[in-house]
Structures are given as structure tokens and as C-alpha cells.
UniProtKB/TrEMBL annotation:
<dbReference type="Pfam" id="PF01842">
    <property type="entry name" value="ACT"/>
</dbReference>
<protein>
    <submittedName>
        <fullName>Glycine cleavage system protein R</fullName>
    </submittedName>
</protein>
<dbReference type="GO" id="GO:0006355">
    <property type="term" value="P:regulation of DNA-templated transcription"/>
</dbReference>
<dbReference type="Pfam" id="PF13740">
    <property type="entry name" value="ACT_6"/>
</dbReference>
<dbReference type="InterPro" id="IPR002912">
    <property type="entry name" value="ACT_dom"/>
</dbReference>
<dbReference type="InterPro" id="IPR045865">
    <property type="entry name" value="ACT-like_dom_sf"/>
</dbReference>
<dbReference type="InterPro" id="IPR050990">
    <property type="entry name" value="UPF0237/GcvR_regulator"/>
</dbReference>
<feature type="domain" description="ACT">
    <location>
        <begin position="91"/>
        <end position="170"/>
    </location>
</feature>
<dbReference type="InterPro" id="IPR016867">
    <property type="entry name" value="GcvR"/>
</dbReference>
Length: 179
């Protein structure tokens, strides 16, 4: 039987870190299923899901823990099965002048409606004309069936007006814009 192992990694960025993780996973017979890896402020940060035979999970964990001698902090968790919940996917795109609290405010609205953030990518860059900081966010969302997309859209539109950002919410069957 296979089991999922989820690990988080953080440490000083240097060439070969992904290779070191992959080599240890391979040595335990694990399969690299999915990951999110990035260099942020000179640090390597990542989340990886590996799949391994249940009988080799302890071996995999031991091999991954050896990365700590190379300066990486490693957290390892056994994956769990998600309950079968019907949901539909949506995509949220946001752009506007940067200010503290944008992610907090958007995530509060989504959580209030029971919408889960499956993936979130954010960046801050200079606006092309003014040079002012511009915040961008892209979120993959899971809407439980029974949650009215129009209700979430209405709350997000009101918030987009307050934050003075442009926000697009795309459902499987189309899109709606706010801003």
C-alpha cells in the first residue's frame, strides 16, 4: 500500500538542493508527486508531496532528515485522505497597488463562505508607468457545492472597491469581474 508524505523545506538557497531532496526520495523508492518550490529573499522554500510504499515511509523520513545536516529545516507529515466532498474549481486573479492586508481581507471573505484556497501565488512588482509597488495574486479555489458563487462574487466585488484593486473570478462555466 502506498502512503503520501508531505514535507516542507527552508534554508539558505544554493544549487543542488532539489537534487539532494530528489536523490533521497529515490533512494527510498518514493515517487515525486507534486511540489511548490521557490527562492524567496535568498532562502529556498518548498512543499513537496512524495508517495512511497507504507513499509518504507520510516526509511524515507530518515533519509529526508539527513538534509538538516546540509542547513535545511525539514518538517515531515504523513498525508491523509481528504473526505470526498463535492466541489467545483474557480480561479481568482487580483492586481492593484500594494498595501498591507490584501491577502488577509480576501481570505477572510473566502473563508466566511467556506471556499478553500487550493493554491496561492503572489508577487509584488513595480508598476510600469508610475514605478509604485503593484501587488498581484492568483488563487486556485475550491467551492463546495451549495455555495452560491454570486454571493461570494458580491462580497469580493465590495471588497475590491474598498481595496481599489481589480479582481477577476473565473468559474468553470465562465467568469465574472469586479473592480
Amino acid at each position: 500500500m502506498k502512503t503520501s508524505v508531505v514535507l516542507t523545506l527552508i534554508g539558505p538557497d544554493r544549487p543542488g538542493l532539489v537534487s539532494a531532496v530528489a536523490a533521497r526520495a529515490s533512494a527510498a523508492g518514493a515517487n515525486w508527486m507534486e511540489s511548490r518550490l521557490a527562492q524567496l529573499a535568498g532562502k529556498f522554500a518548498g512543499v513537496v508531496r512524495l508517495e512511497v510504499d507504507a513499509g518504507r515511509a520510516a526509511e524515507l523520513e530518515s533519509l529526508l532528515r539527513s538534509l538538516e545536516t546540509e542547513g535545511l529545516r525539514v518538517a515531515i507529515e504523513q498525508g491523509s485522505s481528504r473526505p470526498a466532498v463535492a466541489f467545483r474549481r474557480a480561479r481568482l486573479e487580483l492586481v492593484g497597488h500594494d498595501r498591507p492586508g490584501i491577502v488577509r481581507d480576501i481570505s477572510i471573505v473566502l473563508a466566511r463562505h467556506g471556499v478553500s484556497i487550493d493554491a496561492l501565488e503572489t508577487s509584488c512588482e513595480s508598476a510600469s508607468m508610475s514605478g509604485e509597488p503593484l501587488f498581484r495574486a492568483l488563487a486556485e479555489l475550491e467551492f463546495p457545492h451549495g455555495v452560491a458563487l454570486d454571493s461570494v462574487r458580491g462580497d469580493l466585488e465590495a471588497l475590491a472597491n474598498e481595496l481599489m484593486v481589480d479582481l477577476d473570478l473565473h468559474d468553470e462555466g465562465g467568469s465574472a469581474s469586479a473592480g
